[in-house]
Amino acid sequence: xxxxxxxxxxxxxxxxxxxxxxxxxxxxxxxxxxxxxxxxxxxxxxxxxxxxxxxxxxxxxxxxxxxxxxxxxxxxxxxxxxxxxxxxxxxxxxxxxxxxxxxxxxxxxxxxxxxxxxxxxxxxxxxxxxxxxxxxxxxxxxxxxxxxxxxxxxxxxxx
Length: 159
What we know:
- By secondary structure, this protein is mainly α.
- The protein has one domain (20-151): Globins (Globin-like).
- Helix content is 70%, strand content 0%.
- It contains 7 helices and no strands.
- It has helices at residues 2-8, 21-34, 38-52, 64-81, 85-100, 106-124, 130-151.
- Helix 2 crosses helix 7 (130-151), helix 3 (38-52) crosses helix 6 and helix 6 packs antiparallel against helix 7.
- The protein is globular.
């Protein structure tokens, strides 16, 4: 949790962590707009993800509709958890560690980011703008960095 403490530790009123209160509000309010179309958003996300990197498709062997529900549920939990980082950090770290078992590589996080931003832009339409994009990018980078840092602590067994 050292990484997050350094980012989100006690700050004076003039200091903010890497994610501002305004950015959290933007991410939460825009996610609320996408939530009603969660199934469609998941379809858009995975279609874009596999378009960007077709090799990732082999990592998903289960029902994609179910996978989409898991994705949207995880996103909802992360977005809602932005107001309580103390509780969110261990969950995100655990997620990063579990993704090691799925053979997720650091470079995959960039592909996921591109697919996520595309999905949000598509789903939000006229509500998508540079400020919203920046807020989502900032939140994603912080969460993905936390996942990657946690994944790096997992010892893998060579076969």
